[in-house]
Each structure stands twice: as C-alpha cells, then as structure tokens.
C-alpha cells in the first residue's frame, strides 16, 4: 500500500501527508501554515511564493528528490517573464506535491510578517570610522608635465590632507578621468584605511563636493534572523534598522542541523552560503530603500555571527565545527571586499570587516557583545547572556573574563512549541495567571491592551490571536509554576488536582488552555507537557553553561546579570528567574542590553580603534567548551527542576513564595498549588 507524500513546512515546522497532485497552497491552508494568497490561487498575485529544499534533511527524516514537486508550468512561466521569480522559487498555488518535500515559506510570503526585534540600542559611540570623505582640488593635466591623473590625485591628497600612500583598484581608475573633468578637477573621494600602517584605498569618487552622505552596514548574522543597521559614517546616526529571516532555516533550524546538512549533501555548504549572501543583498537593498539612499553609498560592512554562520558566510565548509575539537578555519578578524562575498547590492568596492571569533562554538557575535558590554572593565562580577538558538555566555570582571556557548535550541524563539510562532503581530508575548482563579490574561504583539480590558478585540483586529512567541511561552511556564499548575519537576496537574477546567486531558498528560478561539474559526492556544519539556531543555542548557563559568571562577553567585539579544529585551527578569534561566540575583541587578551584538558591530563600524581593541581582548578571554566538560550534564540535570533542584534562590524567595504541589503518580497535588505567595 502506497503512502501519501510527506510535506514539511519551515520555519513553522508543521507537517502532514497529502495525496499526489495536491497544490502546495492547499496543503499549507489545511495545516494552518502562514502562506499568503490574495488572488485565490489563480497565479496572479504571486503572494504564495515558496522555496522547496532538495537533498537529505536528517532533522525531519526526509530525503527530497528533484521531482518532489510538479514541473514548472505555463502560469509560472508567464509570471516569471512578466515580473520575475527569484531562482528556486515556485508559486504555491501552481506547484503540486509529488513526493516527500521540505518547503520554506519566505518572510514576504507570510501573512503575519515577522517583527524582527533587533532595533539599534541608543548608544554614544566615539566616531573614528575607517572610511572618510575628502574634498580635493587636483591640478589639471598638462602635456608639459606627463603625470597620470591618479598620481596628481595622490599629490593633492598629500598636499591638502597630509595623506600619503593611497591605492585604487581598476574599477575606480576606469571612472577617475571622466569624474575629474566633470568636477573641473574638484572631487570628493571616500578613503578607507583599516590600519594606520596600510595604504588608504579610494573606494569612491564624485565630481565636486559630495553631499549625499556615506554609509555603512552593521550586520548581526544570526541563525534565525539577519539584522542590519544602516549607519551614517559621518555622524554615527542609525538611519534605518531592518531584518530578514535567515533563509538557511530550510536546511535546519539549529546550527548542528546545518552542519549535518553540509556533511550529508555534497555542495550543501555552497547552497547555504549562496542563500545567506542572497538574503544579505536583499536586506541591503531594502534598508537603503527604507532610508531613501542609493545603496551604492554603502561603502563598508561589519559582520558579527556565530562560528557556523561565520564559515557559511565566508564560503568555508563548517564540517570541522560539528565534531571535536571544533576547529575553526580561522579565528582572527577578517578584512575583505564586497566582491569576495558576492555582495552586489552595495558599492562594488565596499570593504568588509568580520570581528574575530573567540572559540569553536563562541563566535564573533560573542566578541561583539564583549565589545559592547565590556565585562573586562567591570568592577563587579557580571554574567552576560546573549539568548538565541545558541546562547553565548560571558562571565567576568577586571580580573578575568570567561566565555562559553550553550545549545539552547529554538524553543525560546517559539519554535518546537505546539502553539508557538516567531514574534509577529497576533502572537501572545506576555501573560499573567491569577493564582486563585487560575484564569489567564495576556497581551499580543501589535497591541498594548490586555485581553481582559475593554477594546482588546478591536485592537487585535482581523488577524486575531495567532499563537505564542518566545517571551510569551517563558512567561506562561513561569506563571503556571507560580499559580501551582506546574510542579517543581515540570509536570502539569490535572483539572481535579489544580481546580481549574482549563486543564484538559492530552493523551496521558495534560495541557493548559490559554485561549480558545475555535468558536470564531481561530486556534486553540495551549501549553502542553511537550512545551514544558522543550522549555526545560532550553533553560537547563542555558543555566548549566552559566554554572560551568561560575565553577571556573570558583563562585556560587554573580553580582549582576545582563540579558542581551533581540530576545533579551523582551524577557521579564522575574519570569526568567522563576523559570531558572539565570542565577539568583536581586531583580534590580538584572538588566537588558538590547541587541548587544548589533551594538558591538556598530561600534566596530564607527570606530576603527575599537577593532584593534576587540582583537586584543578576544585573545585574553578564557574559553570553556561545554560539549566536553564532564560537569555540564550534572548541572543540566539539576537545572531541569523549576527553578532548580539544588541551587538556592534566596533573592527570588524574597518576592515570590512558590507553591509546592506534586503531580506525579504518587502525589495527588491536593494542595492544588493554592499556597499564598507574594509578588513584586
């Protein structure tokens, strides 16, 4: 008996089997996948564009063959000729499922387009950019003095600006003479000097006085999102911030899945490199358009990224990062040009700087956090956690700084959660559960009104409540623990044990209903036992990594905690501590640094001396490799309890008294979690 083909949609992770010949759009609608369509599947609007993936996807247990979708048809051909489809794209209403397939829904095809929460943090940065503008008056050509135009430009820069030793590539020399004559031998040049001892390179030249500005991109290349800040290289002002989903998600949501894809599919690393470079070009075009500037005025780009993203950006196979001793091809900073990375959207002579990596699993993004937060200059012992698919953790003060990476996985970002989604309008981002009635109230992205307040339904609008994002699931689990719906081990109680009908049977376990929108055709949003386990695994990895660094320093507590990352800005310190994500400290000692990696990238973009500083600092950071530390597993297991099995949380107990029900087979949970508690 034949089995219908399996279709897996990313980034949602939703999957199902459908008869051969089923249009992708139909399958997406039946599974509740966020795939847009305005024309009703007529092949006119192109809103339903999708990107099929081919090869072996061990994470999904699927091998996708080239004939997994029906052949390109006349409708797609006509649309491609009229408006153009990106390479590899298909129209979901036309492509039919013929075999097992993995399909990525790109951000622009999603109805609820992602809100990338990586806005630039307000930060005073001393401006000392590597690229500057210089206006010069050049001597006119004279047949009695046979000197080349470029040599006369060199002479003018030395005489008028005391700048010696400049060079230019062939593409610049090709435009030099017409620009000089158009400007009547008065021109503005953009000169780049990455090191004081290296020649300055002419990146661009304009006739007369150029007043159109000069710009750079600070890019945080993450596993899930690529965030960019378009920065004025003269003032340091962020002109626009934007983000795009990392298209490599279709090859695997976590880093090791992508390394595995490269190992199992010859040329897989090149596929992923091409995908991310294409996304960066798209992002550069979009951010320039948003700011109303010519993208060719972007003459510098600084990248920060984890080691796997670092290698895939540079076109280096990351296979060695998937096995001990986790060797990097290079850990030093990199100075490149745009052409080497196929960055065609920006100035062709643009210069690229990639921050150094700290270790095999602690990358340039962690170095950027160190540049931004400066733990090595701290008087007190600071724990800095950059929360993402992988958590980068720094612990240090003036005496010593340590670093490690911990594999938290994508649960904190809403993935692998039954009602989970990435941060987008309609996603529950904050929740409170009444400890007596066990009733929830919540707030969704796109509205400041809580669900029990007047005007909530109108504020939420037609899109409605769609799911729960990372900050929402963290608060939900912590609130369930504080309300006595969840015991220390993470087990959810029954309706009888907890005294609320919101507990529903879910196989052999129970789920807590946050919102039931089924009466209006909407989703039923629950927290399941599987969701609890996914969050426990993520938070245990995070806490265990922090404990390893504390062991190395010989301490049992830290003085303060800094939550960094796009996600860190939206985590409630109280809920993070109840959950046991972070060590116990006074709540006022838990602060958010926003997107510290992005801030570090901006500092390196705007201040050339900062690049030398972080190169020096990285060499002094002690690296701890969690993958081979024997005590990691011990810490991980103890951290499975909520908040922790053995570590005391005295500061937390001053503001919250956690109930102590037991919902295992021997405990009846008769206290119902109704012990009184105080909340701050």
Using DSSP, what is the number of strands?
Answer: 31
Counted up, domains total 4
Class computed from helices, strands and strand pairing: alpha/beta
What is the typical, i.e. mean, pLDDT? 88
Instruction: List unreliable stretches of 5+ residues.
Output: 666-680
Radius of gyration: 27 Å
Helical element count? 17
Helix content: 25-40%
Q: Let me know the largest β-sheet.
A: 6 strands, mixed
Distance between the termini: 61 Å
Major β-sheet strand ordering: 16-15-14-17-19-18
Global shape: globular
Fraction in beta strands: 15-25%
GO molecular function, one term: iron-sulfur cluster binding
Region (Disordered): 657-680
Pfam families: RACo_C_ter, RACo_linker, Raco_middle
InterPro entries: 2Fe-2S_ferredoxin-like_sf, 2Fe-2S_ferredoxin-type, Beta-grasp_dom_sf, Corrinoid_activation_enz, Raco-like_middle, Raco-like_middle_sf, RACo_C, RACo_linker
Summarize the structure.
The chain has about 675 residues and is of the alpha/beta class. The protein has 17 helices and 31 strands. It has 4 domains: about 5-110, Roll (Ubiquitin-like (UB roll)), CATH 3.10.20; about 115-205, Ubiquitin-like (UB roll) (Roll); about 215-355, 2-Layer Sandwich (Nucleotidyltransferase, domain 5), CATH 3.30.420.480; about 380-680, no CATH class.
